[in-house]
Each structure stands twice: as C-alpha cells, then as structure tokens.
Specification:
Length: 194
C-alpha cells in the first residue's frame, strides 16, 4: 500500500492527485498531436469537476492556465489561449497608494474632512450653503456618536472652520443644527428596537 503523503506534493490540490497524474502522464507522450488531445480531455474532466463555474468568464482559459501550472510550464502543445508565464505566476501587484495625511479629529474621520475640503472650494451658492448645513449636522452626529455628551454648536462651527483652514466661517445665526437630544434620542430608540 502506497500512502498519498509519500507520493509528493500536489501542485494544485483542488484537482486532486488523479488529475496531477494525468498531466504528468501527458508530459511523457511523445506525439505532439496525441499529447494535445490528451490535455484537451484532461481540461474537460477538470471542467466537469466544477460545473457551477462554467458561467464564469474565462473559465476555460483558467483551466488551461492551471494545466500549464500543474505541468510546471513544460507542456509543449498548441494552447488555445495566451497562457500565464512562469515568471508572472508569483509577481506581486502594485501597492495601493494610501493617503498618509494625519486625521485631525478621529471622531469625524477622513471622509468628512475630505468633504469639507471639497466644499470649501465651491463658489458661494445655495448648493454650497446646503452642503455646509449637511456636513455640519453630520459632524454633530459623529461627535455625539463618540462623545456621549451634549455638544455646543459653537464647537462644531469651530471644528468646521479649523478643518476648512478658515474658508468656511459659519456663525450660529446663519446655521441651525439638529438638537443633540434628538440625535441621542434616535440612537436610544434604535437600540431598543433590536
């Protein structure tokens, strides 16, 4: 009896040892046409193993790539697709650029700071006034989410002025924000409904 652990490591375990042995056998076939026919049969068997993936784009192409990988890129046949190259198999993707700027107030978050920056560039209009009102109300809600105390609107206006680098200077007379008790009351009621 031969243990599977002694038969060597599987290159792609999802296909199993039998498929790996079929690909190894195909590598030993001398005739190129016969070898190609053998690999096409192996591809069909591999496709039958995962029938739910047949609707996935490029499913056959992926199967051909997997056969090339299992053969250690030694197959000498006419591939119907452009096959993945061995040197591209383990290449790392380009790093995602992250914004490294410091967040001034963590309870507001980076997105709200970016929104303030964008709105401060708008020309004076009714749309800008409405956006400022929405942002200020959101700032108050964020503040109350992290700080469970009542917040004075002047604090929100000061933070808005600071985050906009003085471009958005709003007074309490100009803008009326939602009441702290309304925000806190709504949070309490949402918690009770669960």
């Amino acid at each position: 009896m031969e243990y599977t652990t002694l038969q060597g490591k599987l290159i792609m375990p999802e296909y199993g040892r039998n498929i790996q042995q079929m690909v190894t056998h195909a590598l030993q076939i001398e005739d190129r046409d016969e070898r190609t026919r053998c690999i096409k049969t192996i591809i069909n068997i591999m496709g039958n193993m995962f029938p739910y993936l047949r609707d996935v784009n490029d499913f056959k192409h992926k199967l051909w790539d997997h056969v090339a990988i299992m053969s250690d890129f030694k197959l000498d046949i006419d591939f119907p697709y452009e096959i993945l190259q061995a040197e591209n198999l383990y290449t790392k993707p380009e790093p995602i650029p992250y914004k490294n700027s410091r967040i001034h107030y963590h309870h507001y978050g980076r997105t709200l700071e970016e929104m303030i920056e964008k709105v401060s560039e708008y020309e004076e209009s009714e749309e800008k006034s409405e956006l400022i009102r929405l942002i200020a109300n959101q700032m108050k809600k964020c503040f109350l989410t992290w700080n469970k105390e009542v917040v004075d609107d002047r604090k929100i206006f000061d933070d808005l002025r600071f985050l906009s680098k003085g471009k958005l200077d709003i007074s309490e007379d100009f803008l009326k924000l939602v009441e702290s008790r309304d925000v806190l009351y709504n949070k309490k009621n949402k918690g009770k409904k669960k």
